[in-house]
Write a structure and sequence with these properties.
The chain is an all-alpha fold and 33 residues long. It has one helix and no strands. It has one domain.
Length: 33
């Protein structure tokens, strides 16, 4: 039961990390132009 909740929390954390690194990537791309 707690394992499933941990998996969902990890999934949400991954989404947050992905959106952060995506915006960082876009900022770096604009800086490179």
């Amino acid at each position: 039961k707690s394992l499933r909740r941990n998996m969902r929390n990890q999934f949400q954390a991954n989404l947050n990390n992905n959106s952060t690194s995506n915006s960082n990537y876009e900022a770096n791309e604009k800086r490179a132009l």
